[in-house]
């Protein structure tokens, strides 16, 4: 019976593939509107991406909850976030989620063009997922341990600090009765260099 194949192995492979997809398709994903637009552009230009990355990319676009950058929770991975994550039983790694591979930062960045980088984008701290089989044929289990830095949170904190410091100081009030150019408390009537 060489040359003929049983339908069972084919069916079994399809069932396994579907169960692997289900493992990561149930994962919730929250993206900023900016990150979502970047992923849409990546999908339009997907010829350079591997099949595994394309699968994850299509899934994220189909299922993402899109929010404004100001509204994204601080425990969600966004583009340029620094994260600590773990793959399988390996020790934890720290990386910055980047749009493309960055020269000179080998090992410190995780680009969206990789399955791991793309999978982490939009995840919440403590989320765990299993990616479809990669090049080596083995599915990868990824745990997002912590979002160490998120640009949107840093921006919100910076704005809050500026507001707390008083922000803008009024140098001249056009509605005031005093004109700073003609009335001086010091008794010095010299208009200064601007009068020349």
From TrEMBL:
This is Nucleoside-diphosphate kinase. It comes from Hoeflea algicola. Residues 155-196 are annotated as: Disordered. InterPro entries: GreA/GreB_C_sf. Residues 175-186 have a biased composition (Basic and acidic residues). Keywords: Kinase, Transferase. GO terms for molecular function: kinase activity.
């Amino acid at each position: 019976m060489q040359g003929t194949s049983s339908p069972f192995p084919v069916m079994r492979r399809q069932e396994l593939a579907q169960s692997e997809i289900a493992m990561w398709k149930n994962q919730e994903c929250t993206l900023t509107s900016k990150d979502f637009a970047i992923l849409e552009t990546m999908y339009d230009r997907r010829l350079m991406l591997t099949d595994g990355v394309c699968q994850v990319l299509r899934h994220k676009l189909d299922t993402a909850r899109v929010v404004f950058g100001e509204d994204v929770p601080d425990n969600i991975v966004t583009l340029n976030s620094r994260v600590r994550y773990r793959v399988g039983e390996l020790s934890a790694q720290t990386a910055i989620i980047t749009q493309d591979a960055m020269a000179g930062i080998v090992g410190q960045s995780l680009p969206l063009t990789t399955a791991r980088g793309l999978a982490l984008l939009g995840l919440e701290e403590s989320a765990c997922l299993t990616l479809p089989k990669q090049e080596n044929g083995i599915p990868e289990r990824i745990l997002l341990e912590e979002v160490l830095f998120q640009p949107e949170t840093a921006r919100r904190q910076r704005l809050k600090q500026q507001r707390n410091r008083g922000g803008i100081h009024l140098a001249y009030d056009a509605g005031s009765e005093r004109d700073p150019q003609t009335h001086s408390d010091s008794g010095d009537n010299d208009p200064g260099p601007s009068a020349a």
